[in-house]
Amino acid sequence: MLETGQPLHAFDGEKLRDRKIIVRFAKDKEKIVTLDGEKYDLYKDILVIADSKLPIAIAGIKGGKEPEIDRKTKTVVIESANFNQKIIRKGSKSIDLKTDASLRFEHGIDPDLTEITINRAVSLIQEIAGGKIARGLVDFYPRRALSKKIILDLNYAEELLGVKIPKSEIIKTFKNLGFKVFQSSSQKLKVEIPTRRLDIYLPEDLIEEIGRIQGYKKIPAKFPLAALLPPKRNDQIFWENLSKRALKELSFTEVYNYSFGGEELREIFGYKRGELIEIENPVSIKQKYLRPSLIPNLLVNLKINLKNFSEIRIFELGKIYEKKGKGAEEKRIIAGAVFRKESKSQAEIFFELKGTVDSLLNQLGISDIWYDFYKPTPEESKLSFWQIKKSAEIKIGRVEIGFLGAISSKILEELKINENLAIFEIDFETLSQLCSEEHEFRPLSRYPSAVRDLAVLVPRRVLVEEVLNIINTAGGKVVRDVDIFDIYEGEEMPEGKKNLAFHIIYQAEDRTLNSLEIDRIHQKIIKALEKKLEWQVRK
């Protein structure tokens, strides 16, 4: 072994049952005592050398005690073999036994060395100890290893090494290494690799040999020759970073959650087992499903932190996973939540979060933002996080990008969270396609503005948007902005009614509005509102 690198093993031929040597995998619960007297339990994936009944050696690792050579030995059977590298490594690790032989087999040995080595061993035995060869060589070689043939492009070798080496030098190098070289074309060589070089598979391996033999020190150092171009911007990452910065500037904290959920969250949010993508090898039972939404984990974040904070503002930008046919679809979603223990009403938080969404979208260069009444489809009605009458669809032009509103009371009860919170969830992939870096500049008016408040009593079914549309239409161009600052549905209100209070900002682009002009327009708005049945402007 030391001379050739090929391990050998010798057995006492008289101790082999039925004079047989078999290579097989160990049977379950088989045992063997090795030459050093150690006892090993064998497993089904360990290769052994056996006689007709029991293992006599752990193949490629260590010989057995039973058929060892002793002073009474008259017949010596020498075994020389070549074993699969992976099988020997796996067997060595499973019984925690490393030997010189196992290390050599793990790294790979030339299969043609078996015959060369066994003949050399027999020759030395006869020369030193005498003896007679009782029988010739018994060879079992079912699939003979063939020499690999690799085509080497000399232009590619020059490109990879960075220096041109004459073809004659390359051919000489290969021949000195024992490779056979055949000319394939003027710029290509066909190289036959001897079976002993198990490390050479690719043209790059041949090029490495050229560099190694020629000497890497002979290759002159050069600066890379390439055009210096600015990196191409990744639009997805650009808009993601801009969105995160915009929300952080609005006092939101970013959270990072695992993309998984468990049985408890599945039941709380009403998913059926087949509706979620189940992981085959989950880390734990609490992480067995891929998340279909960012909202469940955001609510868990809120629940955990309620005892520590009176106000929480968090957001997450990440992937969700939905079943689509036989496969799955990934989407990037951005979602945020606002919770406040001491809040006058849920509406207050809703409109605060609506302002946050408006600000975020404006930062992304989007202005055509509006909110539509949430009308769930029959499929969405079976499974919806949202309170239908307290939620809205977020739209840009005619494109729906997400939702904003209050979470189902049933879900909040299960999680033991009170209802002073609002959440938004936006499809970021759709949103990023609508973003723009172009911002329209509107100069501030040189003329002062005036603010008038207006309160209107309306049926509870009336949407705020409906009232806003009437105010803007009746007020015309001089109504610069309308803000709702209160929604009151207390016990003092008539049954089925609510009070909506607005700030109306009046301002003209070309003149200063006097009080008479403002009063006239304000009265026009009041009359337009009172035309609606069951509506009453409070004075």
From TrEMBL:
Residues 445-538 form the FDX-ACB domain. The keyword Nucleotide-binding applies. One of its GO terms (cellular component) is phenylalanine-tRNA ligase complex. It catalyses: tRNA(Phe) + L-phenylalanine + ATP = L-phenylalanyl-tRNA(Phe) + AMP + diphosphate + H(+). Its cofactor is Mg(2+). InterPro entries: aa-tRNA-synth_II/BPL/LPL, B3/B4_tRNA-bd, DNA-bd_dom_put_sf, Fdx_antiC-bd, Fdx_antiC-bd_sf, Phe-tRNA-ligase_IIc_bsu, Phe-tRNA-ligase_IIc_bsu_bact, Phe-tRNA_synthase-like_B3/B4. It is an enzyme of class 6 (ligase). The keyword Protein biosynthesis applies. One of its GO terms (molecular function) is magnesium ion binding. Pfam families: B3_4, B5, FDX-ACB, tRNA_synthFbeta. Keywords: Aminoacyl-tRNA synthetase, ATP-binding, Cytoplasm, Ligase, Magnesium, Metal-binding, Nucleotide-binding, Protein biosynthesis, RNA-binding, tRNA-binding. One of its GO terms (biological process) is phenylalanyl-tRNA aminoacylation. Residues 145-221 form the B5 domain. Its EC number is 6.1.1.20. It is found in: Cytoplasm. Tetramer of two alpha and two beta subunits. NCBIfam families: pheT_bact (TIGR00472). Belongs to the phenylalanyl-tRNA synthetase beta subunit family. Type 1 subfamily. PANTHER family: PHENYLALANINE--TRNA LIGASE BETA SUBUNIT, PHENYLALANYL-TRNA SYNTHETASE BETA CHAIN AND LEUCINE-RICH REPEAT-CONTAINING PROTEIN 47. This is Phenylalanine--tRNA ligase beta subunit. It comes from Candidatus Nealsonbacteria bacterium RBG_13_36_15.
